[in-house]
Amino acid sequence: MEVAVGPVGSVLLIGVVIAGFVAGIWLVVHRERHLRQLADDGVDVEGIVVRQCGEEHVNPYPYYIRYRYRDGMGQEREQKIQVTREFWTDHPTGSPVAVIYSKSKPSISGVKYQVEQERKASAKHGR
């Protein structure tokens, strides 16, 4: 079965592909900026897992946790991140989790093990 797309459909399809590509580049740049921020002025704190999202038997993703931490001004903040199955299993709701947040921009944070993995990868690639 053939589907005739036409010139308007072709333009829309090309637009969607380009938008996806641009969004992917933005995401990588955004993540790199956050990691640089955490490397520059990161503060280690203990957070708590407030919710696990995902199913025990789904392979291999999505596994998410939502964690809460308190910044230097005493404000509670929450973040939801994707994690490995092992990390998800080892950090049930209510368990402590090591967090790094930016002293200058406390809304930027990450789980310590992921931040350290990214730091090592960046150092290995000379970034």
Short structural summary:
It contains three helices and five strands, in the order H-E-E-E-H-E-E-H. By secondary structure, it is α+β, with helices and mostly antiparallel strands.
Essential attributes:
single chain, 127 residues, alpha+beta, 3 helices, 43% helix
Point out poorly predicted stretches.
Answer: none
User: What is the terminal-to-terminal distance?
Assistant: 49 Å
The side-by-side strand order for the widest beta sheet comes to 3-2-1-4-5
User: What is the helix fraction of residues, given as a range?
Assistant: 40-55%
How many strands in all?
5
Describe the structure.
It is a single chain. Helices cover 43% and strands 28% of the residues. It has helices at residues 6-41, 85-90, 112-124, and strands at 42-53, 64-70, 76-82, 96-102, 109-111. Strands 3-2-1-4-5 form a five-stranded antiparallel β-sheet. The termini are far apart. A hairpin with a 6-residue loop joins strand 4 and strand 5 (109-111). The protein is an alpha+beta fold and 127 residues long. The chain is globular, with a radius of gyration of 19 Å.
Topology of this structure?
Blueprint: H1 6-41, E1 42-53, E2 64-70, E3 76-82, H2 85-90, E4 96-102, E5 109-111, H3 112-124
Antiparallel strand pairs: 1-2, 1-4, 2-3, 4-5
